[in-house]
């Protein structure tokens, strides 16, 4: 199975041909993903071509329209300043300013203070609210952690049901051989702007004056021209906080902006790669990756990670174990993800929820790893996909479990697709299938096997089907004929729909929610056992198979079938 999936060749289409066609990939070139909005116009599933240097022209508003709730929040903060007769200038920083200038809503408000810590100002707000008979909500202080490139203490509170973060403007001094600040001072707004990650995120909205401040002189221009540029030299900006490399990728793909060439060279440098691996917590890396995968251009984002030679930094593997990976595994990962994304667009958004879509992309991205394991300290074999989720990205355990379960289901689903696609025509190959099928009529075996499979992957059966379709009857591939590629994807879509409809026709939707008709206690009574064990578990599977084969059957009929079957077995023995 593994060889056919990785090296499968149908009509000249294979994932290997994608890899071979991209041998010339270099800095300044990227995988060019299938254009989801119009598959017929694509030049290919994945092809290597120079990244366009033509930046989009973006419509930027002349002024910020402050929403009513935001005005109420700002008025409260200004009232605090007046109440204590403070000279403090209040500025909304970063993403809120950018999104407002783009005419988008933003619910992430960060307030930058020019003369005090965030926690100090939050105390002032709390005192002011108390003087008006109100109570402050959600107070919290998140300490700085310079070792992980989190240089600022952040204070947080809720106002009018919105979370507001407060930080001080900063100015930093560094030792000669370190990017961890040796001295952190209050800075001017201009100094702080130049310490930001990107020029489009470096602008302020001065609440006191009601005006936008573009203190690098580039923020609005780069926003209009659709460029991802750092305020200072990119290598200096990235070594200050290496996570900014991934943020540059995320914002570039989110807004379809162009990454600056000098920025890309700095991002791919060994110094920045080493700093990203050493200085940034895996949680912060995982959060950025998850935002990319959940975003509007996930394939382009991972393609940038590949292009910038960051793939193995981001999706790190356990170095203490020798692992046998498919040749050019990182390219294969990207190829599968691109094919899955393309197929998702053809299938339509109604088939999968946002969560299922997110995990389907992870399942495709890590599909080349599906058979690879390593041994933990106790000698237990652990899927490498589990390591990537839990250790490299620090994502929740359920993400790892779901993707591993989907990968496990694919091999069995591949064997069932021909029969589900053709409404059960043909004879199932029962090699390797459990004894629970021995007493099941041949006409019911497809429903039983499919039902067992769906009970394992549950709500994610469509995800398993999507990934299986990428490998059925052979892997999606690449050729020069764009129409052929589109036709190939169309065929996969038709297979997906045919199998999906067959499963629904079999009445297996939500089959995992159906409770067994017979309890373990009932089984023990018939077998005359005093306690459970392997025999009870074996009969539970047999009875579940009977229930799947007889969807209208009752508990009494199920028990009677068990008595008769058990009696026959005893006589035969």
Automatic annotation (TrEMBL):
Record-annotated Poly A polymerase head domain positions: 90-228
InterPro entries (alphabetical): NT_sf, PolA_pol_head_dom
PANTHER family: CCA TRNA NUCLEOTIDYLTRANSFERASE, MITOCHONDRIAL (PTHR13734:SF5), TRNA-NUCLEOTIDYLTRANSFERASE (PTHR13734)
One record GO biological process: tRNA 3'-terminal CCA addition
Organism: Eucalyptus globulus (Tasmanian blue gum)
Taxonomy, superkingdom: Eukaryota
Gene Ontology MF: a single term: catalytic activity, acting on RNA
Similarity comment: family membership: Belongs to the tRNA nucleotidyltransferase/poly(A) polymerase family.
Residues that span the membrane, as ranges: none
The name this protein goes by in its record: Poly A polymerase head domain-containing protein
Keywords: RNA-binding, Transferase
Matching SUPFAM superfamilies: Nucleotidyltransferase (SSF81301), Poly A polymerase C-terminal region-like (SSF81891)
GO cellular component: mitochondrion
């Amino acid at each position: 199975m593994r060889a056919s999936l990785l090296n499968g060749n149908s009509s000249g289409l294979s994932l290997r041909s994608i890899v071979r066609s991209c041998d010339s990939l270099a800095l300044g070139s990227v995988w060019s993903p299938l254009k989801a909005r119009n598959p017929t116009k694509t030049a290919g599933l994945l092809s290597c071509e120079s990244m366009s240097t033509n930046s989009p022209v973006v419509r930027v508003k002349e002024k910020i329209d402050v929403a009513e709730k935001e005005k109420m929040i700002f008025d409260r903060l200004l009232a605090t300043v007046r109440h204590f007769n403070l000279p403090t200038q209040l500025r909304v920083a970063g993403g809120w300013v950018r999104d407002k200038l783009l005419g988008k809503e933003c619910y992430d408000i960060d307030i930058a203070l020019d003369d005090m810590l965030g926690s100090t100002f939050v105390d002032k707000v709390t005192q002011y609210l108390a003087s008006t008979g109100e109570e402050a909500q959600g107070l919290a202080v998140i300490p700085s952690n310079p070792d992980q490139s989190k240089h600022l203490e952040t204070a947080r509170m809720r106002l009018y049901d919105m979370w507001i973060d407060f930080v001080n403007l900063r100015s930093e001094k560094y030792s000669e051989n370190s990017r961890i600040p040796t001295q952190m001072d209050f800075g001017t707004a201009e100094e702080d702007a130049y310490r930001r990650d990107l020029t489009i995120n470096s602008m302020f909205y001065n609440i006191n004056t009601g005006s936008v401040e573009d203190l690098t002189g580039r923020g609005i221009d780069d926003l209009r021209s659709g460029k991802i540029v750092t305020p200072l030299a990119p290598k200096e900006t990235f070594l200050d906080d290496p996570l900014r490399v991934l943020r540059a990728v995320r914002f570039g793909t989110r807004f379809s902006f162009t990454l600056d060439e000098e920025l890309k060279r700095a991002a791919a440098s060994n110094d920045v790669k080493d700093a990203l691996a050493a200085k940034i917590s895996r949680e912060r890396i995982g959060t950025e990756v998850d935002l990319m995968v959940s975003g509007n251009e996930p394939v382009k984002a991972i393609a940038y990670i590949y292009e910038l030679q960051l793939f193995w930094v981001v999706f790190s593997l356990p170095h203490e174990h020798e692992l046998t990976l498919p040749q050019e595994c990182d390219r294969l990962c990207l190829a599968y993800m691109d094919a899955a994304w393309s197929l998702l667009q053809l299938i339509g958004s109604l088939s999968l929820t946002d969560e299922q879509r997110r995990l389907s992309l992870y399942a495709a991205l890590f599909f080349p790893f599906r058979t690879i394991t390593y041994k933990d300290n106790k000698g237990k074999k652990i899927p490498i996909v589990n390591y990537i989720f839990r250790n490299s990205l620090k994502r929740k355990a359920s993400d790892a479990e779901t993707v591993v379960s989907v990968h496990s289901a694919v091999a069995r689903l591949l064997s069932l697709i021909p029969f589900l696609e053709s409404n059960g025509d043909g004879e199932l190959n029962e090699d390797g299938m459990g004894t629970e099928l021995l007493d099941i009529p041949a006409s019911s075996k497809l429903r039983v096997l499919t039902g067992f499979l769906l009970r394992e992957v549950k709500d994610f059966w469509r995800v398993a089907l999507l990934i299986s379709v990428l490998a059925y009857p052979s892997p999606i591939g690449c050729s020069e004929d764009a129409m052929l590629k589109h036709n190939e994807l169309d065929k996969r879509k038709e297979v997906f729909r045919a199998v999906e409809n067959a499963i629904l026709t079999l009445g297996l939707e939500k089959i995992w929610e159906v409770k067994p008709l017979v309890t373990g206690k009932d089984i023990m009574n018939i077998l005359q056992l005093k306690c459970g064990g392997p025999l009870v578990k074996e009969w539970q599977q047999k009875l579940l198979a009977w229930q799947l084969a007889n969807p209208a059957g009752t508990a009494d009929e199920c028990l009677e079938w068990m008595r008769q079957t058990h009696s026959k077995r005893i006589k035969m023995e």
